[in-house]
Amino acid sequence: MPAIVLLGAQWGDEGKGKATDLLGDKVKYVVRYQGGNNAGHTVVIGDQKYALHLLPSGILTPSCIPVIGNGVVIDPAVLLEEIRGLNDRGVDTSQLKISTNAHLITPYHRTIDKVSERFLGKAKIGTTGRGIGPAYADKINRIGIRVQDLFDPSILRQKIEGALRDKNQVLIKVFNRKGLEVDEVLREYLDYAEILRPYVADTSLLLNKALEKGENVLLEGSQGTLLDVDHGTYPFVTSSNPTAGGASTGSGIGPTRISRVIGIVKAYTTRVGSGPFPTELFDEDGEKLRSIGGEFGTTTGRSRRCGWYDAPIARYAVRINGLTDFFLTKLDVLTGWEKIPVCVAYDVDGTRVEELPASQSDFHHAQPIYEYLPGWSEPISQARELKDLPANARAYVKFLEEVSGAQ
Ligand code: IMP
C-alpha cells in the first residue's frame, strides 16, 4: 500500500493524534513532515494520556517506526526531554528515526521569536514562541544548522559563529538583549550530538525502500491547512507547509507515491493566535464550546478561539490538498444545542461568496451565512458507528458531507 497523508483541514487542533493512533496499527511508518514543537498532539491510550509535541504519534504504537522528516525543525532540548519522559513511562523510543537534513532550533531562534512578537505589539502573530519562524527563516536564508552538522564539530562551530555574528547584533542593538557565546551554544549542541546519533538516518531513502517493499507509510501533518505559509491566512500562519504538498517535500517521498489524503475536521472550528476567523463566537456559545470541548492548547495552554463549522474552509481544504477523505472529530461536543448553525457561504461587503476569498482583506470582512440544523440531546460519546447516532446527529454529519464537498 502506498503513502497516506493525514492533515488538519482547518486551523489545527482537529484531533490528528487520535486519527493517527487509530490508523497506527495498519501502518509501518508514521512520519512528521513539517513544523516543530509548536504542535501538540494529545493521545489517550487506556487510562494514560500522552502530550506529544515533536515526536510523531506513532511513537506510542509498538509496531510502528516513527520518523521525523527533513521538513521538521527540531529543538534538541525538547526532543530529548520528550524521549526521556516516554522512556520513564516505559515507552520504547529506540525505533525513532530522525532525518539528517532536518533543521535545528537554537536558543537564538527562541529568543528572536519572543522578542519580535513583543515588538509587533497589536500586529503580533500570536506565535507559540518556540523559535519556529526564525528557524525556518534561517533555513530559507541558507544559514540554518542541520542535524548532520552536529556530527562535524568544525562545521558546527563555523555555522554557529556565522549565525551569531548577525544574530547577536540584532539581539543587542535592535532588541536590547544579551548576545550569545559561540562556545556555550557549541558545547550544548555537541552534547546533543552524542545522544541523538543512534536515531539519525537517511529517512527519505528508508521510506522509499519501505514503499518499494509494499509497506504502509503515514505522513502526519501538524497545524492545519489555514496555517500553511502559502495557502493559509498569511501572515497569521506558521512558517511551514502543513498542506499535502508539504508532505512530499518534508519527507522526500514523491507525490506519485501518495494515494490518499485524509483531512481531519472538527465538528465546529477553533483557532489559536491572531488572524481572521469568520465564524468566531464571542458569546456564551463560544464559552460553552471551549469548556465542553476542552479547547485549551496542548503546547501553550492558551484558550482556543471557538466558532461554528465553516464549510467554505472545508471546501478550500479539499481543493488545496486534493482530499480523498474526511475524518470528523468532536461531534459529541455539540450535544445539547437546540439548533446548530453551519456556515455555508460568506457575505463579503454585500455579495454572497461561496469560496474562500482570494484577498486577505476580503476575508477579514467575510460575514458567515448560516443554515441552522436541529440539534440533539442524547449523549453520543459511546456511539461507535453512524447508526448508533440519534437521527439529528446523523443528519448533521450528512449535511457537513454535502456542504464540505466530501462526495
Ligand atoms: P508558530 O508556528 O509558533 O510560528 O505560530 C504561528 C501561528 O500558528 C500562531 O497563530 C500559532 O498559534 C499557530 N500554531 C502553531 N502551531 C499550532 C498548533 O499546533 N495548533 C494550532 N495553532 C498553531
Describe the protein.
The protein has twelve helices and 18 strands. A hairpin with a 2-residue loop joins strand 16 (339-348) and strand 17. The model has no long low-confidence stretch (mean pLDDT 94). The longest helix has 22 residues, at 153-174. Helix 3 crosses helix 4 (132-140) and helix 5 (153-174) packs across helix 6. The protein has helices spanning 16-23, 76-88, 107-120, 132-140, 153-174, 182-196, 203-212, 244-249, 284-293, 311-321, 360-365, 391-404; strands at 3-8, 29-32, 41-45, 48-52, 65-68, 73-74, 97-99, 103-104, 200-201, 217-220, 258-266, 269-271, 305-307, 309-310, 325-329, 339-348, 351-353, 367-374. It has an eight-stranded parallel β-sheet with strand order 9-7-5-2-10-1-11-15, with helices on both faces. Strands 14, 16, 17 and 18 form a four-stranded mixed β-sheet that branches. Bound molecules: inosinic acid.
Short précis:
Helices cover 34% and strands 20% of the residues. By secondary structure, it is an alpha/beta fold. The protein is globular and about 65 Å long.
